[in-house]
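Per reviewer request, we include the raw input and output of the structure prediction for the construct analysed in the revised manuscript.
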Amino acid sequence: MINRILRFGLIFILLFLLQVLLFNNIKFSGYVNPFVYIMFILLLPVEMPSWLLLILSFFTGLTMDFFSGTPGMHTSATVLAGFMRPYVLRFTSPRDGYEPGSDPSMLAYSFRWFLIYASIIVVIHHLALFYLEVFRFTDFFKTLLRIILSSLFSISFIILLEYIRKGK
């Protein structure tokens, strides 16, 4: 139990530092803003209680808001992603179900499964984040393009980090 807490604490700190120091500075003409900190929510154990998942999602988003100067936007988007995660896990469930005590990762299941799972959560997060940022529908298609491009880059970096994390 203590090992898992320490491991997830270390994952949170590393993803947070990567996001704040590296990925927040990547902006291609305002259309691509990769957010890899959401990977923390993706990697939490499958059997985690919903209330704890929402609390961790809240504090993850709140931490990002504090260092990004975006009052409540990351918190709202991350809590929505955390809220939707059990439904996405149920939707993407393998035929035999999830193994008890396993973390949702490429190594535990498959590349295809992880890609679908991560893509759904990242798109949900980015939809909420970017439409909260703009908060109007006049630039609907411009914002949709930002969501698509940022989601593609975020998913690419998350897959890359997952390969690095598992030592492949």
